[in-house]
Fold this protein.
Amino acid sequence: MYAKKIKMQYGCSNSNNVQEIAEIYVDGCNNPGFFKKADLHDYLKKNPGSIKVYISPYPDLIPAVSSKGEKYVRSESNDTPRDNLLRLPRV
């Protein structure tokens, strides 16, 4: 499965903070569409490595928790300066 688009939280359309992503479009599953970041976090805890970002080098999405206890997802670290999720098209 691949993460292909992101929706940012209201008022955060130009943000470069992955914690401000509201929903992520996932394709390659039985019900493609936008999923809330907390739902993806829970899914990835049970199914690690099952969703990749649709940008080379196709890093895995990994679950994370903010210092405030908020569940979110980010891409696996690589040599890019910012998280690959933030390079996906925004809608």
